Amino acid sequence: MPSSKIIDVKEYVVRAHQRTIHTRVFNFVCQQCQQPTQRETFGPRPLYCEQCRRPQAPKKSAVPLKKRKPRAMTYKSGKDIAG
């Protein structure tokens, strides 16, 4: 039976907000240790139990800093552009 959780999302790319995610509990046999197990996840059916493969933190952006587009900047100067 699906369940819902409220999580706090704090990332620098987006404004901090709350998001509701829908999770499911899967009963399956782990591919590594061959033990029947139960795991709650919001994605597809997992292949491994939490002892064999722990949940990991999200990966960083694959684009290096030098390859990203520059941010728009506002400049303050004492002179007006027209003269």
From TrEMBL:
Q: Where is this region: Disordered?
A: 58-83
On the tree of life, the source organism's domain of life is: Bacteria
Which protein, by its recorded name, is this?
Answer: Uncharacterized protein
Provenance organism: Komarekiella delphini-convector SJRDD-AB1
The organism's lineage? Bacteria, Bacillati, Cyanobacteriota, Cyanophyceae, Nostocales
